[in-house]
Write a structure and sequence with these properties.
Elements: E1 2-6, E2 15-19, E3 29-38, H1 41-47, E4 59-60, E5 66-71, E6 83-86, E7 102-106, E8 110-112, H2 119-124, H3 126-137, E9 147-151, H4 156-167, E10 171-176, H5 179-187, E11 192-195, H6 201-209, E12 214-219, H7 225-231, E13 233-241, H8 254-259, E14 263-266, H9 274-290, E15 297-302, H10 306-313, E16 320-324
Helix pairs in contact: 3-4, 3-9
Amino acid sequence: MRAVLTEPPGGLAATRITEVPEPDVDPDEVLVEIHAAALNPADRFLIDGRYPGGPQPPLIAGRDAAGIVLKGDRANRFPVGAGVVVLQSTLTDLAHGTLCERQRFASSTLAPLPAGWSHAEGAAAPLVFQTAWQALTCRGEPSPETTVAVIGAGGGVGLAAVQLALGLGMTVVALARADDKLRRLRDLGVGHALSLDQPDLKRAVHSALGRKGVDIVIDTVGGPQLGAAVHLLAPRGYVAVLGVLGGVDGVVPIPSLMFKRASIHGILVSGSTPDEAQAEWRRIVDVLERGRRRPIIDRCFPFHEFAQAFARLGEHPFGKVVVEMRRQG
């Protein structure tokens, strides 16, 4: 079968489509014909050898996918021909990823492709929406009275967080830099879409809301934004940190953290057990379906244009970049 294989020493220049052996499927695993795989920054980190603790090449990158069951497990949890998506959990195999024509997965890491969804939409959802869900619910599922600010709202996880928060009836403050992304966030129904480059971001957010602080800040950027995130909080609020694109080090304003009795939570989507991932996914799909929302896709690329797909990912698009092994319809 064909796969996007990264060979030593790593990097996109050492990554190409090549023939690799067919997956060796265990009795408790399912063989899936992959129709679509969505790209994430973590995939590029893995290819470039910058993923903390990640495997060394040779490897097949990719974590998100949707496709069709070719061979079920011995419990017949998923019949042949069923549409499935791949969830993120402690069983995620970073060395044997989804940028290939066929792959084996533990049946506990698969979920049915939601009715009416394309394979591209199914592939675009799990990693970003599971991450966003964990960030929104790490203290329990929020009520409609909850306010959330999303730093980096135009990115993959940020956009997922905005869609889920709107679906839960929360008040959303979407923070981004590009004017086009701010406009598109408003088109999605966000009432407060503000530029991250404001000279006094805290005052701008407080003024927009008519109150001092938000209950949750989702920081998808990291680095110096962490300090700004703490300053945006209301008393007893929390910051969910889930990105390092802005840097791996951040300075926390300790007095603000203390006097607000606030907290900081680290989010790692691959820390969920398969059972936890299944429960997360069911609620995610329910919230999206009730709000008549779907994962937002920027662009789909054919399999042989995977390098162009990674280039597009590096341009920070609004929505997910998807590689299609088989075009649907």
